[in-house]
Amino acid sequence: MKNIAVILSGCGVFDGTEIHEAVLSLLAIEQAGAKWHCFAPDIEKRHVLNHQTGEESGASRNVLEESARIARGEVRPLSALDVREFNALLLPGGFGVAKNLCDFAVNGTAMTVQEDVLAACKAFAEAEKPVGYLCISPILIPAIYGPGAKGTIGNDPETAAAFNTMGGEHIQCPVDDFVLDQSRRVLSTPAYMLASSVSEAAPGINKLVAKLVELG
Predict the structure, then answer these.
(1) If pLDDT is split at 50, 70 and 90, which confidence band does 128 have?
(2) H or E stretch including 142?
(3) Sign of the alpha-carbon torsion through 178, 195, 205, 125
(4) Which position among 102, 121, 135, 173 bears the catalytic label?
(5) Active site residue 121
(6) pTM, to two decimals
(7) Which residues contact 86 (CB under 8 A, 6 or more apart)?
(8) At residue 133, what are phi and psi to the nearest 5 degrees?
(9) What distance in Å separates the CA atoms of residue 21 and residue 205, rounded to the nearest whole number?
């Protein structure tokens, strides 16, 4: 049975992992006949938002502890991820990617990637193992794979332009499909960058995960 590592960025679309995307991803991995294992960096969240009002709460929360809410406690520190134990890697979206896994939300194209995230993603790239990026997480692709790496965040002009500015090659993609950079074994799908419901997000995620497991 293939093992798929999943990197989470907290819990909640506005300051962590997009929960619908995470659950759809875990379900799709199991339906493809593989096992999932969740990881998250053991760091503080950039900020904590009240998801009902959109306002900052002023609280301090840990990304690893918050990610455990999604994984039902089954989450390990990202620093413990060993690429040799896994066939593929998957990163769901949510603003936590742009705030906790990197600082794109603050610094745009001058962003830096959190050190554990960078190490894990580069390890999979160097091992030529497939990696799937959902929603906003493809913004990491140029930083991981370098110039010419292909990916999609759907069709948002500003984010697509940022992707290209950082050296990637953005490809427009409908919500129910995914983009495969064959030479780099990188997959991406818009998910909630375009979806307006769970049922709209599911087909693209399901297709991406099925291909990810196939390639792994």
Answers:
(1) very high
(2) helix 141-145
(3) positive
(4) 135
(5) no
(6) 0.96
(7) 3, 4, 5, 37, 124, 129, 216
(8) -120, 130
(9) 8
